Structure formats: C-alpha cells, structure tokens
Amino acid sequence: MIHRLTSLTAAAALLAGAAAAQEVRVYNWSDYIDEDLLTQFEEETGIDLIYDVFDSNELLETKMLAGNSGYDVVVPTGTFLQRQIQAGAFQKLDKEQLPNIDNLWSVVTDRTEAYDPGNEYSINYMWGTTGIGVNVDRVQEALGEDAPMNSWDLVFDPANMEKLAECGVHFLDAPAEMIPAALNYIGEDPNSHDPEVIEQAGDVYAEIRPHIQKFHSSEYINALANGEICVAVGWSGDILQARDRAAEAENGVTVEYSIPKEGAQMWFDQMAIPADAPNPEAAHEFLNFILDAENMAQASNYVYYANGNEASQEYLNEDVIGDPAIYPDQETLDNLYTTTPYDPRVQRTVTRLWTSIKSGV
Ligand code: N2P
C-alpha cells in the first residue's frame, strides 16, 4: 500500500546546489494523482518529495491526533478535517505563500467553509461522490437485463445481493460513508447523530453481510477492472479509473459508475499542513504547485475526480468536465447529501457498530 518516490533526479540535485536539499513529505489518498506531477514538482522546485499513500480517514486521523506524523501535507476529508482543526492538528495557511490561491472556485470554497470556516487551514484538492461501480455484463447475468444498477436496491436488497454474491461484491471500509448510505436507503437522515437511528444501519447490513466478500477501500479498483468482482460500493473517480483500466486491458470488462437515484454522499478532500510539519515552507510550495491551473487539470484528467480549481476548467478533458458523474449537473447535485462530524460519544457508537458489521456478529 505504501509507495514512496524518493529520488531527486540528477539534474534537479544539481539545480538545488550544494545546500542541503529541502524536502517535503506528502500523505495523500492512493490512486489520487498523476505521478508525472510528482516528478515535475521535484524538477521545478528542486525540493525532494516523499509521497506516501493511505486509503482511510480513520487511519489518517489516528496519525494526526497522535502528532509527530512527520508529514508536511495531508488530505483529510472535510468532516474529519473539521474535527482535527478543533483538536489543533493543523496550522493556518500563509496565503502570501500561495499566489495561485486565486484559482479556487467559489462554488467549492463556499461549501468547504462548513468544515473550515474562512478556509483558513485548507485548500480543496478533489471532491466527489460515493456510489456504485458495476461490471455491467456480470450484473445483468446475475439479475437480468433490468438489474437496478442506478439504485441502492442493487446492494441493500438482500434478494439482489444473494444473486450477486457469486460474482463478488466489495464495500468501502469507511464507516463515515457506509453507515449514512444505509440510513439514507431506509429513509432515515443519512446525517443522523442519534445512536438509536444509527444502530438501524446495523440491521440493514445484517441482512446482506453474508454476501459481502470484502470491506476494503482501494483494492476494488483492480478487482473491478480485471473482472474479479462485479460490484463495488466505492468512490466516483476510483470506479472511473477501473473503467479505464479495463478498457486499456481490452479484457472485455465494461465498468460503469452510478450515483444511485435515492441519493449519494458528496465529500471534499482538503489539503492541510499539520501544526508540527517539519517543512512548512516546502509544504506551501507543494500546495501552490497543486493550485496551478494546468497541474490541477492534469491531476483531474488522470484520476477522474472533480477539483476545486475554477481556472483549471479550461484544461479539463471533455470526458471529465462534461461527465455529470464527475461534475454533477443541478439535478444530480440536488440529490447529493453531505455529513457533519460525530462527537466523541456518537463516534464510539459508530466505531463499535462498524466493527460488528464487518465481523458479521
Ligand atoms: C482516492 C479516493 C479518494 C476519495 N482513491 C476518498 N475521499
């Protein structure tokens, strides 16, 4: 899971001169950048980039609350960011060091204010939705031509799941998203903080648990692309990357992503600098590089997630900016919900419930 790019190219090392090379340590989600950008950053700035990846907000949160992570830039989702800001985990951005910050898109910054008032601690990297990825042919084989591929019935109705189990179904290992999805399905408020309501998600999962092969938040990209599984509840861009990997492999697998008609979660992944970051100046250089319109477009064109950079939009490929599964139209947008962070007591309920859902007891 961990991957690191450590090497400074020889040319960049020369440019950096005799002085000790500066470095920046970035901790981002897996499958979330075009790696050419990492090399470009090193070449342009002479800063040595150490880039590690994760696939869980909970894991990142543990590191942020413990402190001394050694990272200079991290990328929590809005709700987690909010809680970590309150815990003092981040430093305010020095906007003087971020001349490209004017590229940000007010449609997104207006929404991220909910997590980071005044957007003082973070910039938006990418945003997206949590929906369903399918291997179209396998799902139709299992459920027939009119399989409900654009409905949460596909994965929350036990009758469907029983038939899909054989071709393989993965769910995200992300309680802050999978519990709201189940609540939304049964007509409850997906953002409920009431432990009695939250517990009802347990009943939804109890019915389908025997048919879920795995809870994992990054393996499903390849598993979908190579036909190992037929359904993944996952993140928009990841499923679209699976679609591309299958097409490139010419393996006969057709992957599609849908935002189910009953609604889906919308989230914002924010870049922030830990309070104890060893290299805050280099961290700002990294953020400013990311805020560049063409760099940000290159990232979105590669990972199929929308970004918060208005100036990047003229450089986005048509299959990105023109795809409502990535840049939702008003109708889709009206059907998306967001959540707010649980307080510690409710969080304990959620954590306990999720553990029991996964273990199937
Ligand atoms: C990238 C997943 C990022 C979305 N693989 C999770 N917020």
Can you put this structure into words, describing what you see?
- Its main location: periplasm.
- Residues 1-21 form the signal peptide.
- GO terms for molecular function: polyamine binding.
- Helix 2 links the parallel strand 1 (23-29) and strand 2.
- The radius of gyration is 21 Å and the shape is globular.
- Strands 4, 5, 6, 7, 8, 9, 10 and 11 form an 8-stranded mixed β-sheet that branches. Strands 2-1-3 form a 3-stranded parallel β-sheet.
- It has 2 domains: 23-128 and 266-328, Periplasmic binding protein-like II (D-Maltodextrin-Binding Protein, domain 2); 129-264 and 340-359, D-Maltodextrin-Binding Protein, domain 2, CATH 3.40.190.
- The chain starts with 9 loop residues before the first helix and ends with a helix.
- The chain is α/β, with parallel strands linked by helices and 361 residues long.
- It has helices at residues 10-16, 36-45, 57-66, 78-86, 106-112, 136-143, 153-156, 158-164, 175-185, 195-208, 220-225, 236-249, 280-290, 293-303, 318-321, 330-333, 344-359, and strands at 23-29, 48-54, 73-74, 122-135, 169-171, 214-215, 231-235, 255-258, 264-272, 306-307, 336-337.
- The structure holds pentane-1,5-diamine (N2P).
- Pentane-1,5-diamine binds at residues 29-32, 77, 235, 238, 267, 269.
- Residues 29-32, 77, 235, 238, 267, 269 line the site of pentane-1,5-diamine.
